[in-house]
Amino acid sequence: MDPTSSSSSSSSSSSSLRWRILRQALIHRSDSRSQAEIKRVSRKATQGFNLIPCQVVDSSSEDSREASLCYSIPIAASPKLYLTQRVDNCSDLNDFEISNRHNIDNTGLVCQWPSEEVLAYFCMSQPDRFRGKRVIELGSGYGLAGLVIAAATEASQVVISDGNPQVVNYIKRNIESNSMAFSNNTSVKAMELHWNQHELSELTNAFDIIVASDCTFFKEFHKDLASIIKVLLKANEPSEALFFSPKRGDSLDEFLKEIEDVGLHYVLTEKYDDQVWKRHETLVKGDDESWPSYDKNHCYPLLIQITNYHR
Fold first, then answer.
1. How far is CA 270 from CA 123, 166, 251, 258, 297, in A?
2. What pTM does this model have?
3. DSSP secondary structure string, 18-34?
4. In sequence order, which ranges of 195-305 are alpha helices (DSSP H)?
5. What 3-state DSSP class applies to 65?
6. In the prediction, which pLDDT does 57 show?
7. Under a CB-based contact definition with an 8 Å cutoff, are residues 69 and 83 in contact?
8. At the N or C end, where does the chain have fewer CB atoms within 10 A?
């Protein structure tokens, strides 16, 4: 196949996906004007697992694009985290111009996705796994999971990354707002990181743990994502990537094929935390009206633990 033709087709597909997201964002914004203040925040507050208590602490005028949310980590003596993010799933044409320019998706600005909360809760529940480790979050959006790791696990370093420069600006602001919540032994920084980057000398084989959530939906990014996992993980020491992703048709299966193709091993786990599973079962039964459209295939994140074969 002509590589130019392939590149053009991929770019066209990416653009099409971004414009569909734009359409949904604008429709949602129009429909949400009469909803309560908490529903203005693009966390999809009424459609989540509600594992980490959250409330709006500062929302400016109706015309403002931002609000500040307070997340209360459900561990004794844990600090609160304050995240600034968009309201009303608010997107404008400039957001999508930037997405097209960098060939990236815009989902990090759209909302705090439910799988991110599950990732944050899982990491918070296993501090020993991260203590003293170098950790990087990929496709982090507003950075909830990375910030929770930095605040609750005593990791030695937490890098919170995204490919969208606008999203990275939010991450930087959120790191600064929560600097007092981090352990004195934990270094925390934001990074603009594209999965197809080739010059990664400072990051090659540098991390003990990679974390990510909802990063496997767009199939055109699978190959680059699998490759960068291989590059970032420590090659000669125990290391792992922890991904949380719903199946979403065959998108997760296709990503796992790419993982095998680059020489990595994975274990797929459905029931990895009792509290998350209990919440999932409640939603499946329809006993909680906060998420009426809940569907296991599209909503429940599976845990994918990725390692090098040689371990």
1. 16, 33, 16, 20, 12
2. 0.82
3. HHHHHHHHHHHHHHTTT
4. 222-232, 251-261, 274-285, 296-299
5. coil
6. 87
7. yes
8. N
